Amino acid sequence: MSYNMTNVLGILFANAHEESVPELSAKRTMASIPFGGRFRLVDFLLSGMSNSGMSKVGIITRSNYQSLLDHIGSARPWDLARTDGGLMLFAPYGRDGEAGLFRGKLEALYSCIGYIKKTGCEYAVLSDCDLVINPDFSHLVETHISSGADITAVCHTDDYTVEQTAKSSCFKVGESGRIEAVSINRAMAGRRTMDLNIYVMKVSLLVSLVEDLVSLGKFSLSRDVMQGKVGELDIRAYEFSGFFRRICDLESYYDANMALLDHDNLAMLVKSQRPVYTKDRADAPAKYGFDCVVKNSLIANGCVIEGVVENSILFRGVKVGKGTVVRNAILMQDTVVGRNTSVANVITDKNVTIGDGLTISSAESCPLYIAKGRTL
Amino acid sequence: MYNKKECVAMLLAGGQGSRLYALTKKVAKPAVPYGGKYRIIDFPLSNCVNSGIDTVGVLTQYQPLVLNDYIGNGQAWNLDRIHGGVHILPPYQTASGAQWYEGTANAIYQNLSFIERYDPEYVIILSGDHIYKMDYSDMLSFHKEKGAECTIAVIDVPIHEASRFGIMFAHEDGSVYDFVEKPKEPKSTLASMGIYIFSYKTLKKYLTENEQDETATKDFGKNIIPALLENGEKVFAYRFSGYWKDVGTIDSLWDANMELLAANVDLDLYDTSWRIYSNNDTAAPHIIGKNAKIQSSMVTNGCYIDGEVESSVISGGVTIEEGALVQYSVLFPGTVVKKGAVVEYAIVGENSVIGENAHVGAAPETIEDKDAWGVAVVGQDITVSDGAKVAPKQIISESI
After folding, report:
1. Which residues of A touch B36 (CB under 8 A)?
2. Which DSSP helix (H) or strand (E) runs through A90?
3. Which of B127, B196, B147 is nearest to B168 (CA)?
4. pTM value?
5. Which residues of A touch B294 (CB under 8 A)?
6. What pLDDT is stored for residue A18 in this prediction?
7. Based on the domain organization, do A218 and A171 belong to the same domain?
8. Virtual CA dihedral for A96, A97, A98, A100, nearest 10 degrees?
9. Of A294, A312, A322, A336, which to mutate for an interface test with B (greatest number of B Cβ within 10 Å)?
10. Which of B3, B87, B350, B361 is the most buried if burial means most Cβ atoms within 10 Å?
């Protein structure tokens, strides 16, 4: 017996963790950071929810949401332009003398508590948008229901670095799968069970937690619910084992993109039965010139390549001129690289133009970021 | 209540395209893939929407499943409209019986009630057989300026090819005084492109009269245009000079794809001011693998290329394994070329598999008997087993 997923509400936090990638989020939300040649980060969670049969998704934004509005449009690409429900975008609002900006996820949820109640959904799945992942939410919800837990939290156990644990919560999980303790941002290397910030719980529980805690002046979901209620509520761990990457700084963003050059990773992320949808642009196929050399690269439609491209990710509409060599680079949408130029270990944001005969490179471990619209 | 439209487009998409053999066994000709991510019908549909024509009837008859599915609600071409939009018009049953479309004119005649809902001044008749970019609004302005009852788009063709077309004879001002369908000895090079603009009242009158003539073949070229000329109606030829390609044969379909790979293409698919739209692009970008070698080619989203690709058009979701060679070929969506296989001078239909070390087609310079050479074709959903051979010019419609 499978659960009717139209009774599950999705809630995405578009801005969460964006301070960890200040370059990429200078003019956009975490959710709208371009990724993997043609996607934006929000596509992964949104497509996962849509493919799992969810028909109501709310996206809560805090600031810089213009690019997100542009990307989402009517939400038709994700099949979420619905007569009943569909996608709802919550921009912050404020009244005279009252700051509209929320301090944490509980306050954010409180700002749209009316919507959450009105959807009539039985369960809610909450997630951030810093993950590159293709989860089966129906399996998650069914596991949650059959376990009888109050909250189920998606996590992944692995060997983590200090940098990774410094920006996330980790769980101590008991033998029954129940989470016994939660540490927040404790920089400790080693084998840990990391919180991926995807939670499922009953809407009724979510509403009462939000209303109760906000009335006490509390605002943090991780601190005041996950850590604060870990003894009181039955919170279970759901180990996610498929391909995923978490974006916690520019290096991890770079590595996550490069991980897609492994065909198996890409196939696990973008499954034929569970595609990742995005806003389409009607680009022609990529065109390879007469004497180009291209190896180990991910190339989107609309690219025109006349030079050498190796170990790189080229987004839609990128042009690489004759005699130019591009190595270990991520070139976002409509980046134009002229002739006889060398580009290595670089991330160019959208609409960057690099002229002829230049050499632009950086150390391998530390990619150079070139901001949106710049001309070199 | 329907909003009035100045011009309604009727797109004839029911043709089998029998000269494409195995490639149209399961799909109508307008649904045949082209240029990596398109189907032929994308061109007239995109031309309509870019020309400001937002009401399009698509007449289907032969193998309509893929076409219906592909067009859907028309959203991909911005043709999902409150007023107008794209409508699929299959043959239907009436109180007096059921009737297939018996010719191009009859197909339109059977759908006069669709046209009349929009009360148009003009109707543009299109076909789903050609690759071209054309601003129909310019042709409509010409039609109005000339006060024509019918305007036919024409293109200059080489004299030796003229016998394949309907040939127009026109005065300096563009007025047509004669028309010959596929003449054996052509005396003019003005070929009809199969694009007609009619003033609606005239169209209705001639279609209705043609229906009452039991000997008529109910075809625009054979009946309607000659009847207009005979009655001295104002028929004008509108000259078009851009890229225009009939892709109704294996050779012309292959040629038209190869022409996209030239350094200076006549058909610019990268021009954002006249985009050609297409449907179903949900795949990830394609991967060019560590062992790949690729030159002078086009590749679409969703592919995994680890072999050698030269001068080829690769549609979406194609896999070319390490050690495989694909050159001067057109691979339709979802095909797989396994290790060590060679595909050259060939068209491979949708979702077909070329087994390990199989060999499809041959380069012309390797064949002594020039008449024996031609583009090899593997149809749709076919497996060419490991080590099997498909000769040049051979057309495979069953697995071997």
Report:
1. 284-285
2. strand A86-90
3. B196
4. 0.93
5. 288, 292, 294
6. 86
7. yes
8. 60
9. A294
10. B361
